[in-house]
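Notebook entry, structure prediction.
Reason for the run: the old model in the group folder had no record of what sequence produced it. Starting over properly, with the input documented here first.
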Amino acid sequence: MVDGRLDADVVAELERVIAELSVPVCLDLAGLKSADEAGLGILRALLAHGVDVTGASPYFRLLLELEKPDQARKPRSGQGRL
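New structure, fully documented this time:
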């Protein structure tokens, strides 16, 4: 689980931990509050290498391109009308 802030100070630790694992990796991002460019960069690199991600907020899903803006939730019927 990635919790709190993912910044340049912890990227090396995350890389080290994942490199030591010999099983498929799935990162739970439910506790991720913020990430700087280094943090987003490592997440993107891990995704490109087959690491799965769960629990990402809609904001982080967009930043990590796990969903496109046009796939974002649309208002339910009757909502969003004036």
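Summary: Helices lie at 8-20, 37-48, 58-63.
The old model has been moved to the deprecated folder.
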